[in-house]
Amino acid sequence: MNSHFNNTDTQAGGRRFSLAVKVVSLALLGLTGCAGKTLQHTFYDGVRSTAEQCQLTRKPTDPACVSLSDYRQYEKERAREKGMAGLESSPQGKMSPP
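The structure corresponding to this sequence follows.
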C-alpha cells in the first residue's frame, strides 16, 4: 500500500516538473525574441570595451590593438556592405552583352 502512494506522488511530481520546464522554456523563448537586437548591441559593446582596454594597457612591444567604431557606425557600415552585396548578386547590377 505504501508503494502505491509513493508511485502516485512521483507521477504528480513528474507532471509538475514537466509543466515547470515547459513554462520556463516558453518564457525564455519569449525573452530571446524580444532581446535580439539588444543582445547584438550588448555583445558588440563588450568586444569594443575589450579593444579599448587593450589600447589602454598595451605596451610598446605588444602587437597593435583593434580599433572599433561605436555601434551606430557599425550598423551603418553593415547596411552599406549588405547593399553592395545585394547589387553585386542582382542581375540589374551586371551588364549584359549586346
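Helices lie at 2-34, 36-57, 71-89.
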